[in-house]
Amino acid sequence: MADAAIELVGISKSFGPVKANRDIHLEVRRGTIHGIIGENGAGKSTLMSILYGFYQADSGEIRVGGKPVPIRTPNDAIALGIGMVHQHFMLVENFTVLENIILGAEGEALLGRSIAKARSELARLEREYGLEVDPDALIEDLPVGLQQRVEILKALYRGADILILDEPTGVLTPSEADHLFRILNQLKDQGKTVVLITHKLREIMAITDTVSVMRQGTIVATRETSETTVEELAELMVGRRVLLRVEKEPARAGAIKLEVKNLTVKDGRGVTMVDDVSFIVQAGEIVGIAGVAGNGQSELIEAIAGIRRAEFGTVVLDDKPIDVTGRADPAELRERGLAHVPEDRHHVGLVLAFAENENSILGYHYESLYLKGPFLNIDAIVADAEDKIEKYDIRPPNARLRTANFSGGNQQKIVLAREMEQDPGVLIVGQPTRGVDVGAIEFIHKRLIAMRDAGKAVLLISVELDEIRSLSDRILVMFDGRVVGERGPEATEGELGLLMAGVEAKEAAE
Amino acid sequence: MSVPYAKLPRWADYGLIPFINLLVAFIVAGLVVLLVGENPFRAAAILIEGAFGGGQNIAYTLYYATNFIFTGLAVAVAFHCGLFNIGGEGQAYIAGLGVAMVGLTFDTVLPWWLNFPLAILGAALVGALWALIPAYLQAKRGSHIVITTIMFNFIAASIMVYMLVDVLKPLTSMAPQTRTFQPGAQLPKLNWMLEAVGFSVRSGPLNVSFLLALVMAFLVWLLIWRTKLGYEIRTMGFSPKAARYAGIKEARIIVITMMISGALAGMMALNPIMGDQHRVQLDFVTGAGFVGIAVALMGRSHPAGIVPAAILFGMLYQGGAELAFEMPNISRDMIVIIQGLVILFAGALEHMFRPWVQTVFASLSPQTVGMAKEQGV
Amino acid sequence: MEVFNVLLQLLDATIRVSVPLLLACLAGLYSERSGIFDIGLEGKMLGGAFAGGAAAAVTGSAWLGLGAAVAVAVGLALVHGFASITHRGNQIVSGVAINFIAAGSTIILGQAWFRQGGRTPSLSGAGRFEAITLPGAEAARDIPVIGVIYAELISGHSILVYFAFLMVPFTWWVLFRTRFGLRLRAVGENPAAVDTAGISVAWLRYRAVICTGVLTGLAGAYLSVAQNAGFVKDMTAGKGFIALAALIFAKWKPVPAMFACLLFGFLEAASIRFQGQAWPMIGKVPVQFMQALPYVLTVVLLAGFIGKAIPPRAGGVPYVKER
To answer: What is the pTM of this model?
Structure first.
């Protein structure tokens, strides 16, 4: 029973100066579900990509079934019975399920017989694991949960004994996630080994036998799940107890600044992402929107900020409506005092190839302060950028440096400085501390509180529940496109977690 | 995430690597010369002599360079917006109609200095309109602009043949071309400029269009790096999502950029038509629209790079003509090969030698070559 | 009967001018289906035509000419592959470069080697692919309509014509019935899926561009060794771009590609046949109008006014492993 399916011995991997993995030692026992938990950027995905042959380790050894093995390509991994379900599915969208399953495992040069064989093998796997899926359906027509099932079937079809799942529930609804967990348990019962990568403690506690915690490229601890607690794991993940509560006075909410009524937003494929959402944000308060990623938060703020067309509903800013279903214009909204720190600073909030000072005017480049007629007033722009660099302690303090050369935290400060220094009435902030180092997190949190205390209305979206709880004066929870509950800042993590999992929503529906 | 490129000093990035790329292109061209049984070094010497050996030669070199400055700027402006305008050839060709309209109407009425601005407007307008349709289709209907501009090159060629054969040709003439413009639509030559510095020029085609091209190079620099519109164009070129976030209207910027690009390409028509031949002839563009691609790539889309790159190609065109006299095995089509090689090595393979240069730099002075900051995942 | 004969001649000419389009179009299909855009079809075809004409002239063998044409076109295709697969360069830029290199070097080398103003020496006898008379064609000539069609239209072409049309079902079969085809289509849609399935994206794409090289070589050889008796400078005259247009028109599918090429070929044949002829109601249609029509039709299609041409999803984007 206790023999090791996989052993990693002293694995290290660098990408340029970044040490993604440092001297990793890990043992996964056969027939167990082994969780690997850590924050984003802790090196979990890199480690698993090395195991799957997608990257080569700089040093160290991989042992499968006790024997040292070279894994240079995914082929080697597949031959050793290692299968992987990637976070972003590796499926060809306009292929059928069957075509996707045989891709790379066709067996012979002509397809006829391999398709027939795959069809019968698929039927067997369906029976064995309860993994029903229409073999002739096109992937693009399947819901996300079923697409993931195809990924699992792909691995099993290739004879995987060891299945690695990378953040598998990120895109799933709670009921789909529950179904996935039942499947994983079934796989374990059949003697398969499962490695589950996640940053969600709840999942680790719910399903794993053993858990390893990663932090900054190393494994800091391995525990039997039954012998550890959420608190212990959380502390191991973060290293030191980051302050969870920012010191702040109670909010003194004032006039209604932003009112959202019956807002409905669809994505490019026509799927409803935001479903009849209504709320208000008042001056002098922070309203936090909590939720598992992909439950409509991104689409919600994009619609309010005018960069995504809404299907239906109204948004009122300072008593004047925003034409969210028609020609809402981000430039016009900025003029009306709505600032927006987008979730994706690399592709949306910044142009990485620009100099720092050029980014410090992005979206405000039409303001007379920065212009002389049709020309840019470069001196004024640089002076203004240097001013912000000083105020926000952006390092290195060089307004002419390419933005790509700043660290994540400093890049985020560039965005925040730009949006906050415009003195907006309403500030929408998406994932303000994603990929940001601890020191910068504290700074950013204090700034957001300062905005609130200056009487601004702040709408905060974050997948970090701690962040939502420590900053918000009111917390809205989004699930499956709806606001399923509102709580005060005193709400417990458990209470919010249930809401985020859609538990109350389901009960209410019944 | 790709393998991070080590950071090189600026001069290596903007000087050394382009130089190596160019050098390799010319070495390969030299091999072709060798292949046809000629001595590449002698060929190069004849070429340089042919391009700069006298006032006459320089006048021709700069005359050709004028064409390439216009078309190179046209391609570069579109590049800054993330668009590949491969239609400069057609835009310049059809813009000949704009020049013809002015020249044929006013050549006996107005002096050149009034006809010139009118013709600039005419050429720019027609070129811009020819670029407008592909731009609109890209902006509003998502039609791939590379394909549509290629198609528009062919459509322009058909229209021009039709116009010159069936419409604009004087009844008394056999050749498919317009009548010759009267002096009112002929641009003054610039040979006095060369003579002023001691060269003798018997008759060169260099004319005031060259000065217009230099002015345009400056204006493009001003536009791209010093105006709000240029800022918006560059934002769009680097990241359409960021442009949308910044409230920049994507469709509007694409259309405006392409019209500027088409206008620049269109102005190229002034040089041969009003400056030299004084009539619209079949195929007067002779590939200058495509040379613009090589020029823009070589000049890294910066006017300060485009002007010397255009002069280099002007030198190849003029020197190449001389070369064809001296070496019967080599015709002017050698330039087309060089042009292709420059596009290949300075464009499609621009990063081929980078790892190698980085290794050299790293071994010379490890501490100065910092690795580029890895982006978060 | 007069009308029938004119129609027959017109269709016969259509077939002849469609063949290089068809070969080049199918060539582009392999590359673009694998996610490598190729606007260098023209250059590869031209290089192939020159090599074919030159080698056939020197050796006196049409087959050796064909081999040389394929070798040169594959060589150019590999340059495109090297730039766009290995070095992840801009595929459009690379294609443009190849067109110029081919345009220039065919003239320079032709002049240097043969000194006939860029032509290769005229081919005759075994140096050229002659028309093949299909069995029974002579006998069938007397049967009205069907027999005449067989004898005049179907029989009497060179072997490359038959090969080109056989390539249509063959390409369909390769794409949809073989492992290679499955992977080819997959890599053009989602290369990461192919990579994680343990298949080399680069090698797969290289094989695709080699297919493109082979077929453009054949297209070039058809021009210089079958349709004409030797290479003339710039003899492709934009056919590579019409083939590209046809590929888009056919939405990257083999059978529609054949019909698109036949349509564009028909327009060309008709524009030659009816040059200067006045039509009832319309009057004289300028020949340039007919020449421009394929391009206009393609633009209209691209604009989405008649159907929508959606290219392979990963087309034009170099594959970079994501972390």
So the answer is: 0.87
